[in-house]
Amino acid sequence: MNMRRARGFTLIGAIFLIVVVASLATFMVTIGSVQQTTSVYSLMSSRAQFAVEGGMQWAIGYVIANDACFAAPNDTFTLSGGASDGYTVTLTCLANNVDEGPDNYNVFHLTAVAEKGTIGGVDYYRRKLMASVTTAP
Question: I want to staple 115 with a disulfide (CB 3.0 to 4.6 A). Which of 3, 21, 54, 126 is the partner?
């Protein structure tokens, strides 16, 4: 085989190898970035879940202790400190009085919403819980 004709074949092989290695490196960086972003989203969603559960626990404790809804139909507060810092929790309470013969009691329908960030943005996290609580004997 003539060496003059075979000289360009090595160059084509080297360029092909460089392109393949660069493509694999780009793919690995992209996968790593997506994995990191997914982990952050999962963490922030968990924090929103804990914030909404904390708000619901507070609301349940309040209506059981007072046998009444909170002063305003919607109670909103922003958490500060800890992992749930910056989450806004909105609590809604609706009371229904039930009269069953000699028993008279309330059924409270509670809604808790925890959110953080701008609606429609990639930094927006929201969780909602609903519960019914009664003071029935």
Answer: 126
